[in-house]
Design brief:
The complex is a heterodimer. By secondary structure, chain A is an alpha/beta fold. Chain A has five helices and five strands. Chain A has a single domain, classed as Rossmann fold (3-Layer(aba) Sandwich). Helix content of chain A is 31%, strand content 11%. In chain A, the strands form two sheets. Chain A has a three-stranded parallel β-sheet. Chain A has a two-stranded parallel ribbon with strand order 1-2. In chain A, strand 4, helix 4 and strand 5 form a beta-alpha-beta unit. In chain A, helix 1 packs antiparallel against helix 5 and helix 2 packs across helix 5. Chain B has one domain: NADH:ubiquinone oxidoreductase Nqo5 subunit (Beta Polymerase, domain 2, 2-Layer Sandwich). Chain B contains three helices and seven strands. In chain B, strands 1-2-5-4-3 form a five-stranded mixed β-sheet. A two-stranded parallel sheet of chain B has the order 6-7. Chain B starts with 12 loop residues before the first helix and ends in a 39-residue tail after the last strand. The mean pLDDT of chain B is 85. Classes of the chains: A alpha/beta, B alpha/beta. Chains A and B meet through helix 3 of A and loops of B.
């Protein structure tokens, strides 16, 4: 790989000696945060299979600095990968509340977005955004791994919007 | 120690059917037995179900020690519950069909005989609204518990409408 061409290493090889770089604190923090988003080990339905495939070696979310994290206390991101039933909604809400700020939510697949093909069921919540706030919607049934990590890269824009004073 | 390969045992169903018919007659249970697709179907009365299950489980010749499933259906003029029993020792299975009155749906619990029937009966209770008499732990299994309908009844209608999320306030 050619030096200086990658987004992450854009300072690499530019300076011959020690230097001081000035930039806004928000930008620094958001640059760091958006490149190490740890997401919760949390699968619900069939979309979870695609989510696992996205995290595994072939599609490899690790290259974006994203890792599965098995505790909501240490996770930044929760991917809702399936439908939410009325019985399960309080559990999802509780897990979301356990996560530390700043936290982000991706609704993956039509079931999490709107209830999907179970839209009219007696037991299905019509979209997870009725329970917890959602930042990025990834459409598909299920979305392909490419679609999911496109969505996750779009989420960088959401993170870059954040400021230290106001979320 | 003798190792028995249970996977390849196939019982002689006609013979088992004869044994069941003989034993039910002896203790006075009315059961209409027939062989359908190499499976024994037994149509029994709802009031006899506990005694029937007890016979099939405790009898040494039959020994149906495992309950595979209990399913229920709504036929609009009646409900039907199918108890599917299996014998690991002999490789036999039997399906007991029970008709339930549609106006006053109730049936005795068989948890006293088969402990595994617990969750099956809870599901039938909440999905079809059939009262399970004598069940030790009748709580909602898949539903939240504040519903005023039974989803698997034929009279239940799906409504095409945008629904708001009603918090259940429950967390277990």
């Amino acid at each position: 790989m050619e030096k200086g061409n990658t987004e992450v290493g854009y300072l690499e090889g530019r300076f011959k000696e020690q230097n001081i770089i000035t930039l806004s604190y928000n930008k620094l923090m958001n640059a760091a945060r958006s490149r190490s988003v740890w997401y919760l080990t949390f699968g619900i339905a069939c979309c979870a299979i695609e989510m696992m495939a996205t995290g595994a070696s072939h599609y490899d979310l690790d290259r974006f600095g994203m890792f599965f994290r098995a505790s909501p206390r240490q996770a930044d991101l929760i991917i809702i990968s399936g439908w939410i039933t009325r019985k399960y909604a309080p559990v999802v809400k509780r897990i979301y509340e356990q996560m530390a700020e700043p936290k982000y939510v991706v609704a993956m697949g039509t079931c999490a977005i709107s209830g999907g093909h179970c839209y009219d069921s007696y037991n299905i919540i019509q979209g997870v955004d009725k329970v917890i706030p959602v930042d990025v919607y990834v459409q598909g049934c299920p979305p392909r791994p490419e679609a999911l990590y496109k969505g996750l890269l779009e989420m960088k824009k959401v993170i870059n919007r954040d400021t230290i004073v106001v979320k | 120690m003798e190792i028995i390969d249970y996977t390849n045992i196939r019982g002689d169903n006609q013979k088992v059917l004869g044994v069941i018919a003989e034993k039910t007659k002896k203790i006075g249970i009315i059961a209409k037995l027939e062989l359908v697709y190499d499976q024994i179907n037994a149509a029994a009365e709802a009031r006899d179900i506990v005694a029937f299950c007890m016979l099939l489980k405790e009898d040494k010749d039959l020994s149906f020690e495992y309950i595979r499933s209990i399913t229920g259906s709504d036929f609009e003029d009646r409900y039907e519950i199918v108890y599917s029993l299996y014998s690991f020792a002999n490789g036999w299975s039997v399906n007991i069909k029970v008709k339930i009155n549609h106006d006053r749906p109730e049936v005795d619990s068989i948890v006293g005989v088969y402990k595994g029937a617990n969750w099956f009966e809870r599901e039938i209770w909440e999905m079809l609204g059939i009262d399970i008499k004598g069940h030790p732990d009748l709580r909602p299994l898949l539903l939240v518990g504040d519903e005023d309908f039974h989803p698997l009844r034929k009279s239940f209608e799906i409504k095409w409408e945008e629904k708001e999320y009603i918090p259940t306030g429950k967390f277990e």
